[in-house]
Description:
The protein is about 50% helix and about 20% strand. By secondary structure, the chain is of the alpha+beta class. It folds into 2 domains: about 10-105, SH3 type barrels; about 105-149. It has a 5-stranded antiparallel sheet with strand order 4-3-2-1-5. Strand 3 and strand 4 (about 45-50) form a beta hairpin. The termini are far apart.
Amino acid sequence: MPFQRFVETGRIAYACDGPHQGKLVAIVDIIDQNRVLVDGPASNVSRCAMRLNDLHLTKFRIRFPFTGSTRVVRKAWEAAKINDLWKETIWAKKVEAKKKRLQLSDFDRFKLRRAKRIRNKLRTDVFYRLKKKAKKTKAAGANKKVEKK
């Protein structure tokens, strides 16, 4: 099947827009084709309706009875350890990195630019040294073949 993430009860979603931007919520019920009822007990999002355009579905899903209360959702959330699983994902790490970049001052950006320049110079030097060494060994190998004939 080409799709793995479906809009379904218990699906964990990342709110990408609106007042709850950047928080994880669980889909509790499907209202219609464009809206769902969500609840975020761990991220302090009270039960409300959200547009599907404002959500990004994650790979996580929790199991609870149809239209379970906030207490039931919280228990399922904690049992599945969603917060720990989310922190380990590459997606969450990218979000954190983006937040850190936005909080950099001018001087921090300057220091970062200098550090990247130094790192790139070291990387380039090592690359050319290895390239030169490989070229020498290749030339030496070709000379041995010529001498054997």
